[in-house]
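In response to the reviewer comment on reproducibility (Comment 2.3), we provide here a single inverse folding case reported in full, input and output, so that an independent group could reproduce the run without further information from us. The structure tokens appear first.
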């Protein structure tokens, strides 16, 4: 991925956009001192990944999430598992759909050791396969650049998801998932 390419991150409201997880809960989480930050090539893919598998999102839940446009100030060497060329390395579409996270984490560890900065892969919950996800590797924790602590991981802008009705309309159009108010007491 070329330096300064804009990608997107859906994350807990108020937290840094460039959080690199190492707790083993994510598909490609590295462990220990290394972590993984999950991004996507489109805003809609980040929302699909967060809320697919359900039919209704309570409107208050949208206020708990932010969406950030982010970039990296260097080229990233990504293992592109969306390419049919990855077949020669034993990659199949199961990599994007399996719930066997210890297996996919073995892949991410092997790819990191081979010198890759991350993995480009298809979102499990986006069947259109137009925009991909990108799992970026770096030391674990918050790597979001700030004036006090600059890093190569810049946030270009952040919005709270409650302020993005366009994304909720797109989510309903693409996947039939709706955002609804919680009914008042009867």
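Designed residues, in position order:
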């Amino acid at each position: 991925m070329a330096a300064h390419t804009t990608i997107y991150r859906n994350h807990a409201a108020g937290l840094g956009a460039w959080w690199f997880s190492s707790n083993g809960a994510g598909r490609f989480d590295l462990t220990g001192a290394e972590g993984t930050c999950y991004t996507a090539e489109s805003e809609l893919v980040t929302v699909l990944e967060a809320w697919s598998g359900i039919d209704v999102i309570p409107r208050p839940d949208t206020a708990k999430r932010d969406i950030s446009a982010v970039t990296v100030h260097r080229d990233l060497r990504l293992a592109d598992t969306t390419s049919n060329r990855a077949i020669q390395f034993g990659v199949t579409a199961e990599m994007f759909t399996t719930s066997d996270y210890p297996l996919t984490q073995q892949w991410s560890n092997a790819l990191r050791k081979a010198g890759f900065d991350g993995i480009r892969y298809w979102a499990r919950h986006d069947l259109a396969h137009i925009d991909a996800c990108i799992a970026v590797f770096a030391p674990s924790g918050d790597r979001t650049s700030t004036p006090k602590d600059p890093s190569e991981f810049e946030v270009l802008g952040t919005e709270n998801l409650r302020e993005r009705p366009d994304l909720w309309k797109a989510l309903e159009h693409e996947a039939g998932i709706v955002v609804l108010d919680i009914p008042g007491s009867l």
